[in-house]
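Subject: Sanity check before I submit

Could someone independently write out the structure tokens for this chain? I want to compare against mine line by line before I put it in a report. The sequence has 341 residues.
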Amino acid sequence: MASPKPQKSRISCDIDFEKNGKQVSYLRLPHSVHRSAYGWLAIPIIAIKNGDGPRVLLMAGNHGDEWEGQVTLIKLARELKASNIRGRVIILPGANAPAVRAGRRTSPLDFDGEGNLNRLFPGDANGSPTPMIAHFITSELLPLADVVFDLHSGGSSLDYIPSAEMKKTDDKKINQLQMDLLRAFGAPVGNIGEVFDDRTFSGTCKRLGVAFVSTELGGTGTVSPRALAVGEKGVRRCLKLLGTLSKNYKVEEAPPTRLVYVGGSDYYSYAPDEGLFEPYVDLGAEVKKGQPAGAVQFPETPWREAVVVRFQRAGLVLCKRIGGRVQRGDCVFHLASDYES
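---
Independent answer below. Compare away.
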């Protein structure tokens, strides 16, 4: 029995990715709704090409409320010219455009109103908007890239020490390239992790043999000058290392980065009940196993004893929750341990 033909994306794009020069346009995602029977959603895309060379995909807005990566790539898209580069750079600064416009982690346009692009790869050509976006990225853009940068941050619910990330693969050459890029990025923290969920973009890149570097550039639902500087300088240093940026394009030398590892579930701390979370430590703290992380207080029943949350292991506080109110199961902290090669 013949294998079924691969699905063809319903998203269209008028950019010629093999053409030299700089092109700006939109991906057109068909979206038939009450107010617009034959409408489409616009997803900005920029392609810059100058002969043969490295093939790079730069993406942000995987989650709509993670602004630092979006600002980084918007500014880079305006700045770069074909004469600045060698090879090709494709920039998708607001990948999940409906979530970006809504200012939410997830898209409100999917059937459940919670379209999480980074949990829907490799996508579905015939799905709702977010699976369609995932399918286009997987089927149309990834074949055009040897290296992918997917810029994230903590969004509205988390805050991170600004960090760059790589995921281990079974390919030694890819692992070495990712490690070199992690060091070149020069973030305060370089996180070396595993792919725990095949539905993520990192999981898809691992499966397809594409080098992948991500970030967690702060968060809190805002844009901080410090985190933005880490992202802007880091991306440019990585493009320079790859040979994408021309020789006369100057970048700052990378500062040292602390290499860490995030393993299984014991690196994470969760709220055990609904209430108001009182943290006992802050970002950057070094904590011990069993140390109190914070307490859930109960404003509706203030006479009730608070419930204390404890760290399940020792490590560096890499991430903390933003927003005082929590529900049972909300992540309130996650840790990292120093990487041992």
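---
OP: Matches mine. For the report I'm noting this point. The helical segments are 67-79, 97-102, 129-141, 172-185, 201-208, 225-242.
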